[in-house]
Amino acid sequence: MNSSQFLKQINSYYPLSEETITALMDICSEEHYKKNDLLLESGSMARYYYFIQSGLVGYYTMDEQGNSIYKIFFEENSFVASTSAIIKNEPSDFSIIALEDCSVIKYPVKAYRELLGKCHDLALFHIRYLEKNWVVKKEPLEVSLKYETAKQRYLLLLENKSLHERLKQHHIASYLGITPTQLSRIKKEINS
């Protein structure tokens, strides 16, 4: 298992001691998922945290008509989990799906949370990660969903070229909360 990017990402939030790195790596394993494999199915308990080494992952739920509603996408060097399900110790409302073939480092929630209690530096990483990604990054997204048009949100998505180019049109439309036909109209409008 090549853990260099994983540790580099963690250390960008808070540097870990060698002792903590050893304890953390002892609970990690490498997994490979094929495109369309589920890392977590809605209604299941979230038993793992994931770090995306390669590939693309989507986080979605289903509406009453059985359509997938994508909440967010994760590229390489991202940490992924059903965080609220883990915190509440309840089944996840969301599924996590491989949108491309993926290689991940996974580590069990129970063992990881035990390490958080023992390793002060790991706990500080975890706090800083949550602050940055679930507070600072998430707030503008929530405001965007409430006040911006689908066109404005699409223009924001376009700013992340690598992600935009990897997503299928139906994923983008679902993420924006519109139909593929509406997305086509928006794209035509932008390109004219």
CATH architecture of the domain at 3-135: Sandwich
Q: How many angstroms does the end-to-end distance come to?
A: 48 Å
Sheet bearing the most strands, described?
4 strands, antiparallel
Assign a percent range to the helix content.
Answer: 40-55%
What structural class do you assign from the helix and strand content? Answer: alpha+beta
Radius of gyration: 18 Å
* CATH class bucket of the domain at 3-135: Mainly Beta
Mean pLDDT: 90
Helix segment tally? 10
Which of globular, elongated, flat, extended, rod-shaped describes the shape? elongated
- The H/E string reads HHEEEEEEHEEHHHHHHH
Strand portion: 15-25%
- Give the number of DSSP strands: 8
- Going by CATH, the homologous superfamily of the domain at 3-135 would be Jelly Rolls
Going across the biggest sheet, name each strand in turn: 1-8-3-6
For this structure, the CATH topology of the domain at 3-135 is: Jelly Rolls
